[in-house]
Every structure is written in structure tokens, then in C-alpha cells.
Amino acid sequence: MTEPDLKQQLAERFREVNGDHPMSDADDAYTNAQFVTLEELCEAHGRDVAAVRRLMLGRRLPLPGYLRSDGAEMVPADLFALADEAGGVERLEAWFTAQWADPDTGKAEWNAYLSGQYVCLHAVTPAAIQRKEYLTAAISASENEPDAGSARWYGRLHALVDELDALEPAFTAYDRLRFGGPTSRDTCIDAIRTRFPRR
Fold this sequence. Notes:
The chain is 61% helix and 4% strand. The protein contains eleven helices and three strands; from the N terminus they run H-H-E-H-H-E-E-H-H-H-H-H-H-H.
């Protein structure tokens, strides 16, 4: 398969996963600030871009996080970091899924990772994924705690929100289209800070 064919096939797979939503100028500017093009990253790491596209299509590496309006595949600068840590792409799935005690959870997280939709984290690692899950669950449940509304409760809540804030980027309007609603930043950071301002 030629390189243009691979790029087209990858774009089609991306839209199967994310839907076909327009990228605005603001979305493009956001992705330019947060991500790099696949070509640029491959050149910087001495990797063949066609080979990397094949790995993405073969479910060995995650799909791009975004397709810019000009069709450029936007990926995180650390796209290859987990594979390197695992000892190679061929070992990545086993290494990744082993980071969860429950094999079914590990497999589900692997599938989520491959989707490229973990644009909700500055660094997409199993530890960061697990921490985000813990923080969003704790923040969502906070109003049901026995001491809700107390000074100590406010302190705990804002510590959780601040930690999540450090893990997550800002997101862009495109994300709200493909995810079909508000992001975790909207619900667990911005909304919480508005409803429960610091005391």
C-alpha cells in the first residue's frame, strides 16, 4: 500500500472512531500548540512514517489525537515513549494491560488507548490514566461526603481538583463534538470551581 493510501486509510479509521466533525481555526491552533504532526515526530525520531501508520492501523500504536483541518495527523510528542518503556512495540500491549490488576480492565484501557482519544491527559501513561479515573470519581462523589460544605471538605475537594487540573490540558471545542458533551475539565474542574469557590 502506498503512503497516500495509508494516510487516507488512517483518516478513515480516525473518523470511524471520532465521527466526522469540522475542525475550526481555533481547534487547529489548539492542536498546533499541544501536539506535533506525525511526519515531524517521525523525522525527529528517525522513524518511517508509513511504517508508523501501519502500526496504528494494525492496533499496535494509538491513532492520532486529532486530524487538523488540512488533514495533518496530530500526535503527542511522547507517542513512542510507552513502546520504548515496554521494550518495543511488539511488547507494548502486554506491558500496558499488565498495569491493571484486572485483565478485563487492562484490555478495555488498551482499546481506549488505541483510539487516540486520551487527549485528556498531558502524558498518556497507565499511572496517569488510573490517577485521572480516581480523581474524577472522587470529585464526582464529593458532595455525598458526611462533612460536605465544611472547611476541611473544601480543602480536600480543591486539592483533588488542582491535581486533576495539572494532569489535563484545556481541551478544545472539537472535543465536545466528538465526545458528545462536556469534557471532564468542564464537569470536574471548571464547574466545581464555579459552584464551590475557594474559601
